[in-house]
Structure formats: C-alpha cells, structure tokens
Design goal:
Strand content of chain A: 15-25%
Distance between the termini of chain A: 53 Å
Number of strands of chain A: 28
Shape of chain A: globular
Structural class of chain B: mainly alpha
Number of strands of chain B: 0
Number of helices of chain B: 4
Distance between the termini of chain B: 18 Å
Strand order of the largest sheet of chain A: 4-3-5-6-7
Shape of chain B: globular
Largest sheet of chain B: none
Oligomer: heterodimer
Helix content of chain A: 25-40%
Radius of gyration of chain A: 24 Å
Helix content of chain B: 55-70%
Strand content of chain B: under 5%
Radius of gyration of chain B: 12 Å
Largest interface: A-B, 25 and 23 residues
Chain lengths: 528, 88
C-alpha cells in the first residue's frame, strides 16, 4: 500500500525530518501524530471508502491530510482552494466524497462550498480555533464541523489500515474536453510499483531532500511526495512565491532531488538563475508534464553539474510517469529540438497505433496507447470517456489500453519520442497543420527557449491563421526575419501571420504553458 | 529613500497602474511591505516582464541569486534589488 513506505520510515527514522513547510520542520514522528489525529477524526461509519477531500495548499494540513486519509483506510482527493467552487463541488460529487480535511487557507473556499452544496459534508479543520468554527457552523445544520479542540481530544495509536492493493490510493481530476472534470482513481497496485521503482532509480535515501513544487492536484506531486517518504527523506515544500525565484531556497534547503515541469527551467533562465554550477547539491532532476526542449536540458545540466537529468513522460491515467530518458548531454537522439521520452518503466506496456487502432511498425508515428501495472481502468462514472479512451487493440492481447491522445514514434532500440498531440492538429482552408512543426521552425530560426503556435482567430469554428508567441531570449528574435524564415521552409498556409516576442509565456496552475490564456490575450483584435 | 529608489518606485507604480486601477488599489495604499505576488497584481509572467522593464529603463541587471522570494516580491525588496544592481 502507498502508506506503507511512510509507516516504515516512521519506524526507522522517527526523529529525522519528514516535512519542511512554511518554515516549520516536522519529524516523521510528529507528522505521523498529526496524520493519526486526522485519521481518527474521519468517521469510518460515515465513510465507506469514498475518497477524503483535502482542501489545502502547501500547508501542514495539506500534507498531514493526505497521510491521514490513507491512514483512515480511504483514498485522498486533493482539492485546490484557488479553483472555482463549482469545479470543486462537481469533483466531490463525482467522487462521492463525504468528508473534507481543510487547511486554514481553504476556509474561504469551504464557505462557498458549504453554501452551494446539498451534500452533507463532514469538515475536519485541524487548525481551526473556536472563532472560526462558530462562524462555519452558521452554514447549515446538515454539515458537520470538527476543529482543533475536538481533534486533540482524540487519543490514538498509529496503526496500519486494513486495505488491499486493489483499493484506491488517490483520485486526481484532470480537465475533460467536454467541460466536466474527469476523475482518475489510482489504486495502490498502480502507484506502489511506480514509487518503489523511482526510489531505486534515483537511489533515494534518508539523507535526501526533495523539492515539492507542484500542487497536490497535479499528479507530478506523486514522485517527490511519495518517493521522499518511502525513502525516509525530507520533503521541502516550495510555496508560490519561492517558485518565482527558488535559487536561495535550493541552496538554503540543500535540495538533492528536484522535480518540476520543464517550463520552470525557462523561468529560471530568464531570471539569470541558471549560472554554471549554481546548484551543486542537486543530484537527481525529474522533469515531467510537458516536452523538454534540448536547450532547457542543457541549461539545467550546466547549472546542476552533479545531477542526473531525466525527462519523464506519463499521463495521470498511467500514474505520474511511465517512460523516462536520461539526458547525457548528447542531443543526437533528440528530434525537433525535443528530448526523447525514453524507455518504459518495468512491467508497463506501450503500443503505437494508427487511426484504425492497429499497431504500427517501429519508426512510424501514431497514437501512443498504454497498459500495465501503472495504468488505471477508467474514469469515475464516465462511461462515455471510458469507452472512447480505454479500449482493446486489434492484434494485441485482451488487456485494456489507455489512449493517450499523444503522438509518438518508437525507434528500433525501443526508445519513444513524443511528437505532439492528436488534438493539436488544426486545419486551415482544408490544409492539415501540425502546430509543433511551425513551432520547431520558429525555434530553430530564433533560438528562443520557448515557442507556442496557436490557430487564431477562429471564425465560425474554423481557424483562420496561425499566431506564434516566443520568448525573446534567442539570437534572432525579430518578427520580420522569423516570418521570412518560415516562408523559406513552410508552405504559405503554415506561415504565422504574426510572431510576438514576449518576456515570458503565461503558465497554467500546473506550470505548463497556458494556451487558453494566450488566446484570451489575443482578444478580438490581436495582441498589443 | 534615495533619488534612484524614488524614481524606480514611480516607474514601477506607473507600470502597474492599469492593474492597480482594476483592483481598486490607490497608489498611496501601496506600502513598502506590499507584495507584488500575494496582492494578485502580478503572476510569474508579468513579474518577469516587470523585471525586464525596470532593467531596460535603469540600465541595470538585477541579481536575485541570494535573495529570499519574500524580499524579491515585496515592492521594497524589489526596489532595493534594482538600486543595489545599479551600484555594482
């Protein structure tokens, strides 16, 4: 079970640091005690193994909350207090959540939730004083509010919950193209092999210090949080401000294992925080969540000369990461300026299929489908998406495969290469355009570290042209020259109408480039 | 506050004016402890744009290497960082 790694570390290293959050350090014994109290406050009679919501963000309660949920024998469902209340309500309805653990930073959001849902909710707020509790109790009698006083009255010894490998460990919602979020329920048998493999892969031990940058609602968090606690190491939470300038944080906390999306590298580069040998303590870097450009890998490796740099790939449905590629500084394997996604983790399977869902030979591009120990069975209560996304493949065994929507190609020696999204293909006047192809031409021409191509404007559902945004840190960041370069390589219909050079690209809550915001910035008349 | 610090503060407030107006924050209400990120005035992208604008305007290269995130993102810390960069 996922909680076993943490419990073993509590036994082996009770006095070693487990968590460093907002300037407070918690030993394994202290964190276990906080989590144990929360677990006890979860009423097993009310909770029939439905996931426990954890409405908290980078706080003691966020981390003790996910541990407490698992200790109670239930899965955890991370909820982000900054998300719109309606989206959170939809998530807890789909997951049938009856109990929510709330950090003080989640109180405002909780008020909105309690006002707008008919679902009776048991709210456990470990740090709430009487004043906060009295205020919350006004939000209707159907909800139950439990605060610090009630919790500290509970006396409990820490014990291993009675769960099986088949029980759900966590539920993470991903955005759905239909507008309703899709709940991915990851079972112990999916996540435990991943955590154990990664702990070995990065040779983690109790002296390590993991950075925890991404939100718990983003499954990139699975690697640092659970591999850290599996290894008896210390998890160092990076708050939203530190994310902007983590240089001093990395040095002060002596981070040894770094995890982030590749866009974080671009941000640091922009702030001139990636000087040669800036971060000698980092010995392993895990990049995942979007394509890793060669230029970013090079810059990171130079700043972290003692680090193994890995480009990991995997959708939430396949538990954080299912393939990995160790960057060696040799970019001969890279294509389109992008680092390969590498080889499958043990006991996982991949197939590349054509549009008829038949496997294609090596060297031929197709949609990447996944199966194996880490791949989930389907979305919560979403029969439409399940039948479209979880399929059987002609000519292959009877198992269920997850269609990623990612295009990939495999080389003869088994290495996988990411080639873009099935759904980033656009058509302009009937011509099929791969946005990544345009991006690559601009990237080569400008040497910009980050380039995004969008189809815009959309009139009556049809794209009229292409717009490019690029970070102005290259050598040829000039609009006219770039368009000329595109004209020399691409057919006319693929040449962007405008190329905007900007200081930075907007990132979404998960730190990926936010294409939707770029479209919003274009507005009706274009970017000014 | 040095002349340069006053100039930098004025420049930053001018740059942020549209967002301050949108959020209904008067210039006088921007105290030295005002945090550019916590206040919701800037996100990571616009923060980097502000750095670029200040660097261009005052011909400085700001060095964030040994600063706490809290220092950099408070208006006072940000101004101080720009002024220090000019000196060196």
């Amino acid at each position: 079970m996922l909680i076993d790694g943490f419990l073993n570390s509590v036994n082996r290293h009770p006095n070693r640091p487990a968590l460093d959050v907002n300037g407070v350090i918690y030993s394994y014994a202290e964190l276990a005690e906080k989590a144990g109290l929360i677990a006890e406050a979860i009423d097993p009679k009310q909770n029939n193994n439905e996931p426990i919501g954890v409405l908290a963000h980078k706080s003691e309660t966020a981390f003790a909350g996910i541990l407490g949920s698992l200790l109670s024998g239930s899965a955890y469902l991370p909820l982000q207090p900054h998300h719109p209340a309606n989206r959170i309500i939809r998530s807890i309805e789909i997951a049938q959540t009856n109990t929510i653990i709330v950090g003080l930073e989640g109180i405002d959001c909780l008020k909105k939730l309690l006002q707008s849902t008919d679902r009776p909710i048991r709210c456990i707020i470990p740090q709430a004083n009487n004043h906060i509790l009295e205020k919350l109790k006004k939000f209707g009698k159907k909800h139950e509010i439990i605060g610090a006083v009630d919790i500290t009255a509970i006396n409990r010894t820490l014990s291993r919950p009675d769960n099986s490998a088949n029980d759900v460990a966590y539920v993470i919602f991903t955005s759905g193209s239909t507008g309703d979020p899709k709940g991915v329920a990851v079972r112990n048998r999916n996540v435990v092999p991943f955590v154990r493999h990664m702990a070995k892969r990065c040779n983690a031990n109790h002296h390590d210090r993991f950075s925890q940058v991404s939100d718990l609602t983003f499954d990139l968090s699975i690697f640092p949080v659970w591999v850290c606690w599996e290894s008896g190491a210390c998890l160092c939470s990076v708050n939203d401000k530190i994310k902007l300038a983590p240089s001093k944080f990395i040095k002060d906390k002596q981070i040894t294992i770094w995890t982030s999306v590749p866009s974080a590298i671009v941000l640091l580069k922009k702030m001139r925080l990636l000087k040669v040998n800036s971060y000698p303590t980092i010995r392993y870097s895990f990049f995942c969540g979007e394509a890793l450009p060669v230029e970013s890998a090079k810059a990171w490796q130079a700043a972290c000369p003692n680090s193994t740099v890995e480009n990991m790939y995997g959708p939430t449905e396949a538990t954080c990461a299912i393939t990995g590629f160790q960057w060696t500084g040799d970019n001969s394997r890279s294509t389109n300026g992008i680092v390969p996604i590498g080889w499958l983790l043990p006991n996982q399977n991949a197939a590349i299929v054509n549009q008829k869902l038949s496997p294609v030979p090596t060297g031929v591009e197709g949609e990447l489908c996944l199966s194996g120990a880490q791949v989930v069975e389907g979305y919560l209560k979403d029969t439409k998406n399940n039948s479209e996304k979880f399929i059987k493949i002609n000519q292959l065994s009877d198992e269920i495969w997850y269609r990623t929507g990612d295009l990939a190609v495999q080389s003869d020696d088994g290495c996988y290469f990411f080639r873009g999204r099935v759904d980033f293909q656009v058509k302009i006047l009937g011509h099929r355009i791969e946005l990544e192809e345009v991006e690559q031409v601009v990237r080569e021409s400008t040497r910009s570290s980050s380039v995004v191509c969008l189809s815009w404007p959309i009139v009556d559902g049809a794209a009229q042209g292409l717009i490019v945004f690029a970070i102005d840190d290259g050598i040829n960041c000039d609009e006219k020259k770039t368009i000329k370069a595109c004209k020399s390589i691409l057919p006319n219909y693929m040449v962007p109408k405008r190329v905007y050079f900007v200081a930075a690209l907007p990132l979404n809550i998960n730190g990926k480039i936010d294409r939707k915001q770029l479209i919003t910035m274009l507005g009706d008349g274009g970017y000014t | 506050m040095s002349d340069l610090a006053i100039q930098v503060r004025k420049f930053i407030l001018d740059e942020l004016q549209p967002k301050l107006t949108m959020l209904g924050i008067s210039r006088g209400a921007v105290s030295t402890k005002f945090n550019l990120i916590d206040s919701g005035i800037l996100d990571s992208m616009s923060f980097i744009e502000l750095i670029g604008a200040v660097e261009n305007k005052f011909s400085v290269e700001m060095d964030f290497e040994n600063l706490e995130a809290n220092e950099i993102t408070s208006i006072e810390g940000f101004i101080q960082c720009a002024v220090e960069s000019r000196k060196s």
